Amino acid sequence: MIEAVCAAGSEQNTMKYLAEQLHITIGSLTVAANTLIRKGYLTREQDARDRRKMHLVPTEKAQAIDQLHKDYHRKLTDAIIHAVPADQMDTFLSGLNGAYDYVRKAQV
Fold it and tell me: Residue 14's beta-bridge partner residues?
């Protein structure tokens, strides 16, 4: 959830948008958001133009965690790429693309 909030632009960080992106209900998002707010990772702000809308905003603590998470994925990707022999890279990438397509279709 922290990743989704950090990735969303300031106009797209509404509860409705984030719930849709995470494929969860607004109620489930609210429960999770309350926990992350209590722990100091997020703040909730009311939209200046439409007071019915609420925005989730990452704190510096959340942005630091998000950066660590991105760094971890980058290092993991580098380790995998360096572990696959060059002559097998095409086969590996083909399998990876197949897995990606499966996951993407399953999210519908």
Answer: 55
Q: What is the value of pTM for the model shown?
A: 0.76
Phi-psi region of 104 (alpha: psi -120 to 50; beta: other; left: phi over 0): alpha
When pLDDT is averaged across residues 78-106 and rounded to a whole number, the result is 91
pLDDT digit string (tens) for 51-70? 888 899 999 999 999 999 99
Binned at pLDDT 50, 70 and 90, residue 11 comes out as confident
Range list of H helices, 23-59: 26-38
For residue 46, the cross-strand partners are: 54
Residue 66 tokens, joined: 């998000």
- Give the relative orientation of helices 26-38 and 15-22 as an angle to the nearest 10 degrees: 110
φ, ψ of residue 86 to 5 degrees: the values are -55, -40
Strands (E), 23-108: 42-46, 54-58
Q: Residue 63 in contact with residue 11, Cβ under 8 Å?
A: no
Q: In whole angstroms, what is the distance from residue 25 CA to residue 15 CA?
A: 9
